[in-house]
Amino acid sequence: MKAILFALACLSFIATSAHAGLPSAVEQQLKLAAIPQSDVSVIVQEAGAKRPVVQLNPDASRSPASIMKLVTTDAGLELLGPAYTWQTTAYARTAPVDGVLYGDLYLKGSGDPRLTFEQFWLLLRQLRANGLREIKGRLLLDRSAFNLPANNGDAPFDDQPMRPYNVKPDALLLNWKSIRLQLSVANDNANQKLEIQAEPLPANLNIVSQIAVIDGDCGEWHDRLRTDISPRGDRFTLLITGSYPKSCGTQTMSVGVLDHPQYVYGVFRQLWEELGGRIDGANAGSGYGDARVPPDAMQLGNIESAPLAVIIRDINKFSNNVMARQLFLTLGDGTPAGSVNAVKNWLSSKGLNFPELVLENGSGLSRTERISAQSLASLLNNAWQSPLMPEFVASLPLTGVDGTMKKRLKDLPTAGHIKTGTLDGVKSMAGYVRDKKGKWWIVVFIINHPNASAGQAAQDALLNWIAR
After folding, report:
1. In angstroms, rounded to a whole number, what is the distance separating the alpha carbons of residues 16 and 8?
2. Residue 376 and residue 68: Cα distance in Å, rounded?
3. What span, in angstroms and rounded, lies between the C-alpha atoms of 273 and 271?
4. Which of 335, 388, 381, 382 is nearest to 360 (CA)?
5. What is the DSSP letter of 104?
6. How many CB atoms within 10 Å of residue 119?
7. What mean pLDDT comes out for the span 133-141?
8. Edge-to-edge strands of the sheet including 426-434?
9. pLDDT tens digits, one per residue of 34-90
10. Is the dihedral of CA 370, 76, 46, 35 positive or negative?
11. Per-residue pLDDT tens for 2-44?
12. Pair 198, 185: CB distance under 8 Å
């Protein structure tokens, strides 16, 4: 009888431990941040196991912020394959004659998430190397791979429409539709002035600075500046106003400018002319437009993206929203609704039932997207047992080393591959942590509360608890 009672007591202890509360260090940090546990969801579970050892509000529907990218990137690996690439191709209806194209040049995009300024230069250099030097027609853009509303899917997430994180997806997304500004204070005799260098500098964009150089600490210098853009005929002016402390020295900032067609045309003109080329279509009006590539067009040049296994590293390590949205749209028929269906059908095929899941754009930069900690833990557990696990795990930020975890937990004694997420009122993390005995653990921690930004210490305490 005593043996039976002892066995029952052991079973009771095991069952209780499987549903244990938060570690005391985590509870303490949440109290210090004034975040109630009712607004927190946590899962800690050994990778490959069926039950968690720690869970708190596991089934609550939460706003995940950028850890929603885990769903998009895992689905991308499974549905498209790690070697999948995107193509960007130049076409014409007639062959150039003596280096002159007597007609329009077509550029067709397939949604490349990482078509950079440098890669675009390679495409244009390829055209020049093949003998093309002058285009007598226009630059026509085939962006039909994505079928998005006229406002490109939605309004800016906040009141900062020119911030790079607010750039919307496009089948011909070039350089994330951004320019990189380098700001530096230079002495001009007795005066000090601010010099601005831009790369790229679209041929249809002027930059006007009305920034005052001031004394004082550098601090949050970026918040002192305001950017506005206005059209002037077929050109545009980027006006930058505000103040810049001279103690800041040289700094850089990125700005999302122009609409996608305007940006592609402006950068094309800049690079094409730098390469010694010429395009004359503007003489008859607008030098660019939207058009599908005709069936009888011939290919003049082509570049392909890095493979998907590389692309998802940028998406997850640096939490690139527009790249995640490009991938999300590629998963379906080029429409948000088609991508939602594709992801949900994929989850169903894997036996993953997420009834609370709400997808909008797949990036987490959304106030409507929802998922639970339990669903994310199930996704991570499924990915851990997939043949593509190495590619998926390698895409996550490594604690104290790179990405959004570069400055966090440098003293963590073991490895942690952790995707982070931050929105106003949301602080989240999810991924894998190796403990000192060599076991790998799945961890999900989501805070939805006005004080969420103060919850990082609690999340770091949980990662330390798992590792040690």
Report:
1. 12
2. 9
3. 5
4. 335
5. P
6. 17
7. 97
8. 54-56, 40-46, 440-448, 426-434, 416-423
9. 999 999 999 999 999 999 999 999 999 999 999 999 999 999 999 999 999 999 999
10. negative
11. 454 444 444 433 333 344 689 999 999 999 999 999 999 999 9
12. no
Q: Which amino acid is at 32?
A: L
- For residue range 161-203, list pLDDT tens digits in order: 778 888 999 999 999 999 999 999 987 656 788 999 999 999 9
CA dist., res. 388 & res. 115, Å (int)? 25
Interacting residues of 390 by C-beta distance below 8 A, sequence separation 6+: none
Q: What is the mean pLDDT of residues 98-119?
A: 97
Structure tokens at 303: 């570049």
Give 425: exposed, middle or buried? Use CB within 10 Å, 0-12, 13-18, 19+.
middle
Q: Pairing between strand 426-434 and 416-423?
A: antiparallel
Rounded to 5 degrees, what are φ and ψ at 237?
-120, 125
pTM of the model as a whole: 0.92
Q: What is the dihedral of CA 119, 125, 129, 134, to 10 degrees?
A: 140
Please state, in angstroms and rounded to a whole number, the distance separating the CA atoms of residues 55 and 372.
Answer: 12
Residue 170 CA to residue 329 CA, distance in Å, equals: 9
**Kind of pairing, strands 426-434 and 440-448?**
antiparallel
> What tokens were used for 431?
């991924």
Preceding omega of 200 cis (within 30 degrees of 0) = yes
Short-list 2, 32, 285, 7, CA closest to 139: 285
State the Cα–Cα distance between residues 66 and 322, nearest whole angstrom: 12
Tokens 């790179």, residue located:
402
Give yes or no for a contact between 199 and 291, defined as CB atoms under 8 angstroms apart.
no
Nearest to 42 by CA among 414, 384, 464, 377: 377
Residue that the structure tokens 């952790």 belong to: 418
Instruction: Name which of 16, 39, 35 is nearest 27 in CA terms.
Output: 35
The single-letter code of the amino acid at 89 is T
**How far is it, in rounded angstroms, from Cα 368 to Cα 353?**
19
185 by DSSP, 3-state: which? strand
Cβ-count burial 234-271 (b if 16+ within 10 Å, e if not)? eebebebebebbeebeeeebbbbbbebbbbbbbbbbbb
Instruction: Please spell the DSSP secondary structure of 21-73, one letter per residue.
Output: ---HHHHHHHHHTT--GGGEEEEEEETT-SS-SEEESTT--B--GGGGHHHHH
What the block records as the tokens of 440 is 């790998």
CA 462, CA 468: separation in Å to the nearest integer? Answer: 10
